[in-house]
Amino acid sequence: MDLEVDRAARRDEIGDDDADASPIVVGVNRSVAARAAASWAAAEARDRGVAVRLVAVIAHDHERSQAEDSMRWARAAVERAAPTVRIDEAIRFGDPSDVLVAESACAAMVCVGTRHRIGTPLEPMVTAVVERAQSAVAVIRPENFTGLAGSGIVSVVLDDTPDNDTVVATAMREGRLRNAVVRQIDHRVNSWVRRFPDVPVEIVADGSGQVPHPRDGVRPRLAVMPQTDAARLVGAASPCYHPIAGYPDFSMLFVPTDRSRHHPYDAAPPDLDSKEPT
């Protein structure tokens, strides 16, 4: 099916007035990484109250049986992580990156697994989806996530860009959902931490009673970044310069920063518990 026709059909299926029901789309193949992405997406979908849409992409009809096997394994991963989440399935013809970008037009998020080895660039298909998608994109390493696992670190950069609050709010939600510590790397030009780099600083929310996480140098399980960072992905391999140490050798969630393209879930006010935007 032509991508533009299919995109219009998907919009009709979901409905313009039902944006909150947009599914979490998962790119499915026979890899362990794809199953980890499906498991990660299941927890996300349960938290948002939406469906998981599993999408397998094939070039020829004789690949359909392999796609069906992949779908069965991914479905099992979703059912283990979140048994109550609705699962939609689609096998489509085309180029994987083109198909997933088209799916992103009607998705709350697109999730893809990555098999890249530490110290090597990400797969071109993954970078293409991150750069071109119209929704948030999660890039999941299988060793980082298999669902609602506890502990770990979610890293995010504090900077002076206008939409940084959106990125940080997403990181805070992921920390809550994954039961993880959120590590904020202060990259603001005029912050007190940068003005006094020789002074150890611990930031604790007033009255929270939380014990600060030790400075253990542990690589994050997930890094939350603006989608504009996608330009850095092409050819990037550790070690390289990035405020988050170890980039890009961890799972990543890229958040759209053009407010006209935000899914309603991603455009939260600073008060995460507030029901009305401020």
Automatic annotation (TrEMBL):
Domain UspA: 23-141
Lineage start: Bacteria, Bacillati, Actinomycetota, Actinomycetes, Mycobacteriales
The name this protein goes by in its record: Universal stress protein
Any Pfam family the entry gives: Usp
